[in-house]
Amino acid sequence: MVRHVLESFRMKVTGPSGPSAPQTSRPARAAGGFSVPGASAGSSASATASAASVSGVADVGALMALQGVEDATERRRRAIRRGGCLLDRLDELKLALLSGEAGEGALERLSRTLREERPEDADPGLTSVLNQIDLRAAVELAKADLRRNAA
Fold first, then answer.
1. Residue 76 within any structural domain of the chain
2. DSSP code, position 34
3. Domain limits for position 60
4. Looking at the structure, do residues 63 and 88 belong to the same domain, yes or no?
5. With contact defined as beta carbons under 8 Å apart, do 44 and 34 qualify?
6. Is 57 in the same domain as 5?
């Protein structure tokens, strides 16, 4: 199944006349003046085809690996976005408490946002600010838990 998907992907990328297409019976040419003595055209074509199929799989593997790599800028952006969401949730909770509501919905959203994974950032200043935001959110959740238990 995986081989079929990879082969169809390679066909889409390189087309039917790509490197894995059958070679015609042309004589093998020396690349850059280099040739292997005693190598026949048939063995050269099969070696080229097998090398091309391996490189096709390697290319797909490299492409998939690149998609999974997250650069430092994207991690920083996600960390800042998470911090901003936590601050928004804290504001929602503040407004709910000031209006006399229990703020259960705001507490749930705050808890859910706090549980989200926080990407690590190399900037110590940003990390410090994000730690303070996380701590403030955890304190508010603990205070709400105490209010619930006291009631």
1. yes
2. B
3. 1-12+47-69
4. no
5. no
6. yes
Q: How many domains does the chain have?
A: 2
Asked whether residue 22 is domain-assigned, the answer is no
Residue 40 lies in a domain: no
59-109 pLDDT, tens digit per residue, is: 766 666 666 566 888 999 999 999 999 999 999 999 998 998 878 899 999
Q: Read off the pLDDT of residues 14-48 as tens digits, 9 standing for 90 and up.
A: 455 555 555 555 555 555 556 555 555 555 555 55
Q: Within the chain, where are the H helices? A: 2-14, 41-68, 72-98, 104-115, 124-150
- Best mean pLDDT range from 7-16, 30-39, 141-150: 141-150
Q: At what angle do helices 104-115 and 72-98 cross, to 10 degrees?
A: 160
Q: What single letter denotes the amino acid at residue 126?
A: L
Can you state the angle between helices 104-115 and 124-150, rounded to 10 degrees? 140
**60 and 103 fall within a common domain:** no
Name which of 19, 39, 13, 17 is nearest 27 in CA terms: 39
Q: Is the residue at 140 inside a domain?
A: yes
Measure the CA–CA gap between 62 and 77, rounded to whole angstroms.
Answer: 25
